[in-house]
Specification:
It is a single chain. With about 200 residues, the protein is of the alpha/beta class. It has a single domain, classed as 3-Layer(aba) Sandwich (Rossmann fold), CATH 3.40.50. About 40% of the residues lie in helices and about 10% in strands. The strands form two sheets. A three-stranded parallel sheet has the order 1-2-3. Strands 4-5-6 form a three-stranded parallel sheet, sandwiched between helices. β1, α1 and β2 form a beta-alpha-beta unit. The structure holds adenosine-5'-triphosphate and magnesium ion.
């Protein structure tokens, strides 16, 4: 499961657990992106902070792992490179699933080598409030859409964007983000609006 995870939140965790259970997967690998190709313009929190938050959020689930693969790879984080590396490491016969929310799958044609992603991984799409997976066929075309597995996980209207906004204006993020991640955000001063022109670094 790839993402910026800026920060990781309960919808990410809920989706990961649901997919793991539905497909009886031995593990879910969370893959924080290094330099997200789609987010180069927006300032994002350091990869290390995002990585630590994913670790804190997933520590209590024995099936959840966090990978530094995309963080350590030079250049932009392309999902297809990650899928190929995972497949080659896991050997013949291993199947790699790539889990996306409705927003992400509906824009997959803008990604690097979208057809290869769909061919080389089993792409699973989950609903997300505000995005309509019935548009999949029209947006991707019937051939690609038929290869994407759509599942109906419980929808949760949570986004990292909203969490960052809430922290910036001092609104609680309790129940949106796991407690250890809330503590980390507070200690590091992430997402605060009072640390200079909206920058996301710690205050000191
Ligand atoms: P941002 O608002 O910064 O874009 P985000 O909440 O969308 O953050 P990402 O790290 O961008 O989180 O998302 C990682 C993956 O999780 C993507 O595939 C995204 O579609 C999916 N995802 C995130 N939140 C949800 C949600 N509430 N429901 C379904 N899928 C989600
Ligand atoms: Mg997003």
């Amino acid at each position: 499961m790839g993402g910026t995870f800026d920060p990781i939140h309960h919808a990410h965790l809920l989706i990961a657990e649901e997919i793991r259970r539905r497909f009886e997967l031995p593990r879910v690998i969370f893959m924080p992106s290094g330099k997200p190709p789609h987010k180069t313009d927006a300032e994002i929190t350091s990869a290390e902070d995002r990585y630590v938050m994913v670790q804190l959020a997933t520590a209590d689930n024995q099936h959840f792992y966090v990978s530094r693969m995309e963080i350590e790879r030079e250049g932009p984080s392309y999902t297809i490179d990650t899928i190929r590396t995972l497949r080659s490491r896991m050997g013949e016969g291993a199947e790699v699933y790539f889990v996306t929310g409705a927003d992400a799958i509906l824009e997959i044609l803008t990604w690097h080598e979208p057809d290869a992603i769909i061919e080389e991984a089993r792409v699973v799409a989950v609903p997300r409030p505000g995005f309509d997976l019935r548009e999949l066929k029209e947006t991707l075309g019937p051939r690609r859409a038929s290869k994407v597995t759509v599942i109906d996980a419980p929808p949760a209207d949570i986004s990292s964007t909203n969490i960052r906004e809430r922290v910036a204006i001092g609104t609680s993020i309790r129940y949106l983000v796991p407690p250890p991640v809330i503590d980390y955000i507070r200690k590091r001063g992430l997402y605060r609006s009072d640390n200079g022109s909206g920058s996301r670094g710690p205050t000191c």
